[in-house]
Write a structure and sequence with these properties.
6 copies of one chain form a homohexamer.
Chain A (H helix, E strand, L loop, with lengths): L2 H25 L4 H15 L7 H15 L3 H13 L4 H15 L1 H22 L1
């Protein structure tokens, strides 16, 4: 286990442990190296960088995934991650609404659907 | 002049006066209403909303435009806007590098090109 | 209730009342302002503009959403809207097939799936 | 010369003769078959179909290319084509402004830039 | 039945007979010409071209559909096609993982999901 | 200098030395870590993987960048890389033409423009 992988796992533990475990399990039989790369590069190399705080990093990610509109599962996962590093639900909603300006209303509306599901799943986990 | 337009212009004055004036002039002969809509909806309705600070809003916009990769001029303009509302150059670079994870390395590299040009234009304006 | 909102609702009543009501209900608890913005800006500000008839506006929207390929629910809703403002089913099919040229065959094939579902839902509503 | 190619050339003569000649010349040395396919499939097979008039077809294309934002040269060419089959300049502007709703404001603003250039080139050709 | 259609069907028989039959049936009532165009242009005109072998063509298609991220059903179908023309499962996984570099990690992860489903469907067909 | 970086540089030397040097220089003052990441992750981690030969990897990349349409400079650079690892000019043209099917004709036409420029630059370098 490389140092980068170790650092990535620590970051993932802080940001979004459950989502990574689900991803890792789903890739285990078919593309385990992709799961390793996810821990190493985005989480080990990028999210650990100083120069931008984690909350700002998740704001950037939620915005980008809402705008792209091609990764609803990852958006949901990063909405949960954003809550874990200090975003409020309301701030997440604001980011997504703002994307109507840059990627169109359908992107924003679909982003809100992802947020609704993410919030609901978190409520269910708490119960 | 509607109240929304007035509010939008005030926000634009704070965030990115020059870019809006350039846009407005360029649209004057061909689509003046689009310039008005830009002031009214994104700036009058969205950026004025409470619930997310302006710096976070520009982080979201810089991230989204880098990821989409189809609007280099607008990205440059929002990089300047981000600096005007409290982002450091380094924070902007971090946001853009992070987009390699969500939209690929070419998107991040092209985002850095936009940042380089935006920073250079700002340096030239100061001279 | 602003004049723009009122105008938008009137336009939505003409174009696609059911879809907007569904959207509004789904956003009520989480992002009610986004539903308001949908009525105000696209429907209150844009679709009410003179200079392009409603049928042509829905042709443009069906084409764009088919080409983008990221908003199947909104495409379905606009296919119904297009029928409500004078497009025939056949014209809608033609628009979507044409998108194979500009966005590739998968975009066109997925657009036809949206049309199939939209037509079926309308048939079921009539029964 | 196949019948489809012949039909495509006739359609191109009506819609946008100059753009196709420029394209054909530019592809002659490197990918002449792509120029042939352009005449055969989009123009020979699609634009000649009954069921949607040419003006509506160009409305769909201008909308889609504005929304995609990745083909400014082709958008310019189809703006000229739209004028040739009965769209007014104002209708084209309306289509493009409307795309702010579905693909974001930057897409609409960049679409207007394409329109400005297309209109200017047509004016210069007339002189 | 045109010669191009005939050639396309032969190519489809070799590459991905089942997927085309499913597509054709699904389009029969609503857009039969689109099914015909799929046989004629991509399969009759393009895949039959010399100059690039079929395995390389499917590598290109799997890569592009993974990167675009808007056509998971077509990606699944081309993953099966790639296996039919000589790609190994492992090569397909490698292509998809590589797309993390050019279109971001979510695109690659979603591509792997498509591969998992395609492989599973093929296993079930064999049983 | 990490082992991954070293491996990445060796791969880049084989595939596309000049393009990387140009990139590295352009990022030196503004985002040197992004240049390092390019060497480490795409070239050190991905292109060095066994399981898919380099020629097939460049086919995948040229296809994806043509289809995305947002990274013409990177496409040009990978067209040169493809030639360096065994693709012929004709094979590259075939990959790009094929993208008309999956991403539309404008994407293919713009891809051919990138190829024309890449071929021309290589000819000039040889002189």
């Amino acid at each position: 286990m490389s140092e980068r992988y170790q650092k990535g796992l620590e970051m993932l533990n802080k940001m979004n442990k459950n989502s990574y475990n689900t991803l890792k399990e789903s890739l285990e039989d078919i593309a385990p190296d992709l799961a390793r790369f996810v821990a190493e590069f985005p989480y080990g190399d990028i999210y650990t960088r100083t120069g931008l705080d984690l909350k700002s990093r998740e704001i950037a990610t939620v915005a980008a995934l809402t705008a792209l509109g091609t990764a609803p599962l990852q958006l949901k996962s990063h909405i949960k991650g954003a809550l874990n590093v200090g975003c409020s639900k309301n701030e997440i909603i604001e980011i997504i609404i703002q994307m109507a300006v840059y990627a169109g209303f359908p992107a924003a509306i679909n982003g809100i659907s992802a947020a609704r599901e993410a919030f609901k799943e978190l409520d269910e986990e708490k119960e």
